[in-house]
Design brief:
Glutathione S-transferase; alpha+beta; 4-stranded mixed β-sheet; Glutathione-S-Trfase_C-like; Glutathione S-transferase Yfyf (Class Pi), Chain A, domain 2; Glutathione_S-Trfase; about 200 residues; binds glutathione
Length: about 200
């Protein structure tokens, strides 16, 4: 099994953490989809990482689909097998991934030359991040979709999203505005699966 990923992608990190938590062996093919010489479109027509090449040759994307595929391979379960019970977990995963989408969009826009940046667009994405974090804190208080005693895919998605905020949006200081999330994330982000996959220094 081969994972095509960049080392800074929070979505790819989600799958690297999931593979580590499940104890599934894989090879990592590092590819940066923004470079002209990238081979990512040969795996995923959308040109995005992560993409997972299964042992039978099938290629899976995007990260929620890869996570579902990994459940079929065994290892520690990261999603309840029962469909209805899996929905709150997948909802929390989708919320975390959506915050990541907003953060990536804001980062890319903020990387354009200053005169070309759409400030209203950046603000719109930042609002999604703030609303999303508030909703996540609420779900955490209600224990809705989070793993509790054993880690699940929602925990992993939230951890990778928070790690991305640390990586690109340290100035947002999400820990001081979301103390419950901060207390919960401290243990999660200290797990070897997370420390081993931290993005390289910028
Ligand atoms: N929904 C996708 C998002 C994947 C994604 O946007 N990956 C970024 C890297 S962080 C990418 O490959 N971007 C390249 C591009 O948009 O052309 C997933 O969960 O896998």
């Amino acid at each position: 099994m081969k994972l095509v990923a960049s080392l800074t992608s929070p979505y790819a990190r989600k799958i690297r953490v999931a593979l580590a938590e499940k104890g599934l062996p894989f090879t990592l093919e590092v590819d940066i989809p923004w470079l002209p010489e990238t081979a990512v479109p040969s795996y995923n027509p959308l040109g995005k990482v992560p993409a997972l090449v299964a042992d039978d040759g099938e290629v899976w994307y995007d990260s929620p689909v890869i996570a579902l595929y990994l459940e079929t391979l065994g290892g520690a379960p990261l999603l309840p097998a029962e469909r209805l019970a899996s929905l709150p977990v997948r909802q929390t995963e989708a919320l975390a991934d959506g915050i990541t989408d907003a953060a990536v969009a804001a980062f890319l826009e903020g990387n354009r030359p200053p005169e070309k940046q759409d400030q209203a667009g950046i603000e719109r994405q930042l609002t999604k991040i703030h609303r999303g974090l508030a909703a996540l804190e609420e779900r955490l208080v209600q224990r809705k979709g989070f793993g509790g005693a054993s880690i699940n895919i929602a925990d992993i998605a939230v951890g990778c999203m928070l790690g991305y905020l640390d990586f690109r949006f340290g100035h947002l200081h999400w820990r001081s505005t979301h103390p419950n999330l901060a207390a919960w994330a401290a243990d999660l982000l200290a797990r070897p699966s997370f420390t081993d996959t931290a993005p390289p220094p910028a």
